[in-house]
Amino acid sequence: MEIKAKDAWGLLLVLLLGQLVAFSMAAASFASSLVANLGIDAPLTQSFFAYLLLTLVYVPILLRRRQKLRVPWYWYLALSFIDVQGNYLVVKAYQYSYITSVTLLDCWTVVWVIVLTWYALGTRYSFWQFLGAGTCVSGLGLVLLSDAKSPDEQDPSKIPLLGDALVIAGTVCFAFSNVGEEYCVKKKDRVEVVAMLGLFGLLVSTIQIFIFERKSLEAIAWSPTMLSLFAGYAIALLSFYSITPFVLQMSGAALFNLSLLTSDMWAVTVRVLFYQQQINWIYYMAFATVAIGLVIYSLNESSSGDAPTASTEAAARYQQLPSEDNSTGTASNLDSQESKQQDIC
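RE: above sequence
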């Protein structure tokens, strides 16, 4: 298989961004687990601060452009609603399960995303892509085996099966959200997608807080430690949502979620650094297996006729988006870019 230099650099960029997303997800997971360990049950409030930060960063950029929305607002509302529910279910799971179990079960998103992109977006995957995905999931099975060989002391307040069920339900929401974001960023505008996701996510989470979480919010003692945990979670998700559209446009939702699988490795590493727990040698086998799976999938991504566009071409189109203004010439450029994207896709 011949790989051009530009394609190789594009592949490395996608993999690097994917790992940054994975680290951000692991940081958010760690903050959520610490909040749960402190006895705080406020998943919607955690999401509220994350969406607030997204709104403060990206909505002013969108308003500065003074351009009409490229996607109807009600689609963003639906996408945000699904995303809020996914965040709620997964963060809620930390009340009943452990950080390694929650991050491990996130791998179910890969299965849902491949199914959704196959039927909804018409994406076709080759045998080697399925092999790469299966290899990554096998690597996470080794992570589970590693955790089983060094179990934590059982906490009577935990209900692992309930927590696992919440995570799996949350991965269904994330799959719909990721595929929807993939469609929007490939056909429309990255900044608009993130800004609207933050704005409508803020609206949905605020309404749900007043309905479901008001008493829990009133019971929180806002100490500096608590504020730093909520802030850390919000910053981690800001990084997550900022980098995610790049990965989605340059590759696709499937590779994006495959990259997220390595957040399990980051989660184990965080446990070692903060909880001073030793990890099993199987962990290193798992990390290598996931890495091999990512490479197999990435190298064969362009082999499918309906696969996402090449990384370098997508990156070139993306670099033009932030400099757009409300001029007539820019509007025509946007239409031209959109028509080119449709031709390619």
